[in-house]
Amino acid sequence: MGLGKTIQVLSLLLIQKRKKIDRKPSLLVAPASLLSNWSAEIERFAPDLNAKIVHSSAMTAEDLKQFTADELFGLDLAITSYGSLQRLAVLGETYWRFVVLDEAQAIKNPNAKQTRAVKALKAEARIALTGTPVENHLGDLWSIFDFINPGLLGTGKEFSRYTKALSDRPHNPYGPLRDLVGPYILRR
Questions:
Q1: DSSP string of 11-39, one letter each residue
Q2: pTM of the entire predicted model
Q3: How confident is the model over 150-154, as a mean pLDDT?
Q4: Quick one: which of 18, 77, 103, 117 has the most CB atoms within 10 Å?
């Protein structure tokens, strides 16, 4: 918390908007409790972004039900929750510029429906924001990396065997894993 993740993503989106080349919208998926925070941060730091919250807290049930891909045209950013992503087929059918996950540890369980819905999203680039990439075990990290760079850490089983072998090393056991994922992680 308070590391500037939101501001960095908004800066990236503003840079993309100013390039005026790839006008595809981006998608932000966050816990429902953070949607209003994102809206406030956009208003404060990036008011030039054309953003829309696609969620029952900001739209009527009827508007959500009738929401189409045409309504994404001209948007810089669509913002939704992990739960809404599963219910709104149009979000899964759209090809996004960026898909950004806030509190990305929400996809730590690779077998959960919301994880499968997130990993099925189509995008040019994917970003995972989290202050806690490992909550319970290293498999949490694998699931996040399987979203941002599928295959980098192998399959879940391969990764599990790899980390088991690392844990048996006497000195700096997880150093090789740190070296592997380091280029993909921005730490503050």
A1: HHHHHHHHHTS----EEEEE-GGGHHHHH
A2: 0.91
A3: 93
A4: 77
